[in-house]
Specification:
mainly alpha
């Protein structure tokens, strides 16, 4: 039974990680189909984990919070998409209410904001590498850096924290 529970947790973490990547790629590759909204992402998590009503409830609560977040200038808002996805997964997996899930969503969203700032600082290096490739006439390399490498790195930025948050559990996330 213990091994089966570990496998179920692994599969759940993998599926939720893939949902988070799909939702993140919405505005970057798919053309903004609104999968990047907390309501939609959390509901997708609920569908994947077999509890769409809980996903919908968490997503609605997270959507209300995210509606109050406003980008001003270069300020980076809390990442409510990441927060709602992880909170929805925890609610679906533990049977917690939407209100309880929101106690996880906001801190995770702030952590996602910090991860995003660090990640964008690191990925800025790719711009200089792509500029050098363009100056050398290596346009395909520059294109691959932008489309392939950038997409993979963005995907990992969402997949890794989501996967490990679900795999390692709520206690770790609360501790962080």
């Amino acid at each position: 039974p213990r091994k089966e529970k570990d496998m179920n947790t692994f599969v759940s973490a993998l599926l939720v990680g893939l949902v988070s990547v799909f939702c993140m790629l919405d505005s970057r590759l798919l053309g903004r189909l609104n999968f990047e909204q907390p309501l939609v992402g959390a509901t997708l998590v609920g569908v994947v984990l077999g509890d769409p009503m809980t996903g919908l409830a968490v997503g609605a609560a997270a959507e209300l919070v995210s509606m109050g977040l406003v980008n001003v200038g270069a300020a980076v808002p809390a990442d409510m998409v990441l927060g709602s996805i992880i909170a929805s997964a925890f609610a679906c997996l533990t049977g917690a209410s939407a209100e309880t899930a929101m106690t996880i969503a906001v801190p995770v969203a702030v952590l996602g904001q910090l991860l995003g700032i660090v990640f964008r600082s690191v990925i800025a290096v790719l711009t200089h590498v792509a500029d050098a490739a363009i100056e050398e006439g290596k346009f395909v390399k520059a294109q691959h850096l932008h489309i392939v490498v950038g997409t993979i790195l963005y995907s990992l930025m969402y997949f890794i924290p989501t996967f490990f948050a679900i795999l390692l559990g709520t206690d770790l996330v609360k501790g962080v």
